[in-house]
Specification:
Blueprint: E1 22-24, E2 53-54, E3 58-61, E4 64-67, H1 76-79, H2 93-108, E5 119-121, E6 127-129, H3 130-133, E7 158-160, H4 168-173, E8 178-186, E9 198-208, H5 210-214, H6 242-264, E10 270-277, E11 280-290, E12 293-303, H7 305-310, E13 317-324, H8 325-332, H9 346-349, E14 372-379, H10 389-400, E15 404-414, E16 421-429, H11 438-456, E17 459-460
Parallel strand pairs: 1-10, 5-8
Antiparallel strand pairs: 2-3, 3-4, 6-7, 8-9, 9-13, 10-11, 11-12, 12-13, 14-16, 14-17, 15-16
Helix pairs in contact: 2-8, 10-11
Length: 462
């Protein structure tokens, strides 16, 4: 759907800008699955918060105790990341990206009293309820994003947020009409140079009343945000008027095009791809051409009216977007490995100490230490759902930590007579700051083999 194919005469003053090219594609809700709900607990910044502890009956985290149950799957290594708040550490590349985005919105969008239109919230606790993380965003009970194998649960009711949108409904309910939200999010995932179980997201939300949306349109007082008896189509929700949808979509895409132009430069090429998210409709992904390739940088869409109704803003309409800070930083600063963001090596951090946050930075690679690889092969336990790759990845990450650069499945085998299946994974080890020895890697690898057998029920073939 092109934004301005058959514009209404009343909308022509605002819809004269040529639309950007748009592709049609269905996608899974991954990027804006930045959306969950928020608890208004704030993180302590005085250093007084006790260290997290996983006890026999409870998990102690950020000064709170959470009873364990059959859903508890957080690990000590993951809990140790809670409270690091890389996006709030001065001169860190994630902080630098966040501040550049914040500065753009502060300067480009000013309220009627001369103050910034968008407020910023970047210190909300990552511990949220399952209802906040999923239900508040209209994510169905059977949606695959809820799986225990993809998330870090403290128990059946509480989890580490899988996206910053977990706070969206509560911030809207508090009366905010325009805000940016940044924070750390947690997902069990594969292991390679661009995936890490803890990463950082930033999102924006903007709501409009009748007057705000139509004030610059000729005879705008005659238009309405809503219509009765409407039908949902690929281009609009059943309750929204077509005029409101066209103006909202235009404002959303114009806002985000200004943002990526600010980040990537005036010559950046942009295109829009239709996609699907449970909490927005219509929904889009923005791609930019970078070094000759199209790259997805964010997801966005018009907020589902049901979500706004539940947040007490049923008389307004709005849009939302979400992006990954690591993804932007890796591209803009040429950072090759996502593990580097957790490095405390001053050779890395000092490269991002700049006098002006808009100053270009090109990361200079640290010494490249050689990798070591070891394979692990095992028979899978019998039963259709008895083994999940993410469980193995999480086990490897828990034991090997940031020594593990990548884990990849290199071979699968099914016994022709018994039907038993085996898999072989290659684990690549590389330290970011020194050379590893085969002896120390072998000690880690042996522990992974033993733990995989006891905890995952596999049978080693080594």
């Amino acid at each position: 759907m092109r934004l301005v194919r058959t514009p209404f005469p009343l909308l022509l003053p605002l819809l004269q800008t040529p639309p950007l090219p748009l592709l049609h594609r269905c996608c899974l809700s991954t990027l804006l699955a930045n959306s969950s709900a928020a608890s208004h607990r704030w993180l302590s910044t005085d250093g007084s918060t006790p260290q997290p502890v996983i006890g026999q009956d409870s998990v102690e985290l950020l000064g709170q105790s959470y009873p364990r149950d059959d859903y508890t799957n957080v690990t000590p290594r993951i809990l140790a990341k809670v409270g690091r708040n890389l996006h709030n550490q001065s001169d860190h590349p994630l902080w630098l990206i966040k501040e550049r985005i914040k500065a753009h919105f502060y300067s480009a969008y000013i309220g009627r009293w001369g103050n910034p239109l968008f407020s910023v919230h970047d210190n909300l606790s990552p511990v949220v309820t399952v209802e906040q993380n999923f239900d508040s965003l209209l994510i169905p009970p059977d949606h695959p994003s809820r799986k225990r194998g993809d998330n870090y649960y403290l128990n059946r009711q509480t989890m580490l947020r899988a996206h910053t949108s977990a706070h969206q409904r509560e911030l809207v309910r508090s009366g905010l009409d325009a805000f940016l939200l940044a924070g750390d999010v947690y997902r069990r995932d594969e292991i390679d140079a661009s995936h890490y179980p803890v990463f950082h997201q930033m999102e924006g939300v903007r709501l409009f009343s009748d007057h705000e949306l139509f004030s610059k349109v000729q005879n705008g007082e005659e238009l309405s945000l809503f219509e009765s008896g409407g039908r949902r189509s690929p281009h609009k929700q059943e309750t929204h008027s077509l005029e409101a949808v066209k103006l909202l979509e235009f404002d959303l895409k114009h806002t985000l095009t200004r943002l990526v132009t600010h980040l990537f430069g005036q010559d950046v090429e942009v295109r829009w791809v239709d996609c699907y998210f449970p909490f927005t409709h219509p929904s889009f992904e923005m791609e930019v051409r970078f070094q000759g390739d199209w790259m997805e940088v964010l997801g966005c869409g018009l907020m589902e009216q049901e979500l706004l109704n539940s947040a007490g803003a049923g008389n307004k309409v709005g849009w939302a977007f979400g992006l990954g800070l690591e993804r932007l930083a890796m591209v803009l600063y040429s950072i090759p490995d996502i593990r580097l963001f957790w490095s405390q090596d001053q050779r890395f951090l000092q490269q991002f100490r700049v006098h002006d946050i808009q100053q270009p930075v090109c990361f200079q690679l640290l010494s490249k230490y050689p990798p070591l690889h070891n394979d692990i092969s095992f028979w899978l336990p019998e039963g259709k759902d008895s083994f999940a790759e993410n469980d193995f990845y999480d086990l490897v990450r828990s034991i090997g930590g940031d020594l593990v650069e990548k884990v990849s499945l290199v071979d699968e085998f099914k016994h022709p007579k018994t039907g038993r299946r085996s898999q072989c994974y290659r684990i690549i080890y590389r330290h970011m700051e020194r050379t590893l020895t085969q002896h120390e890697v072998r000690l880690v690898h042996k522990r992974i083999e033993r733990t995989a057998e006891t905890e995952l029920g596999v049978q080693g073939r080594y």
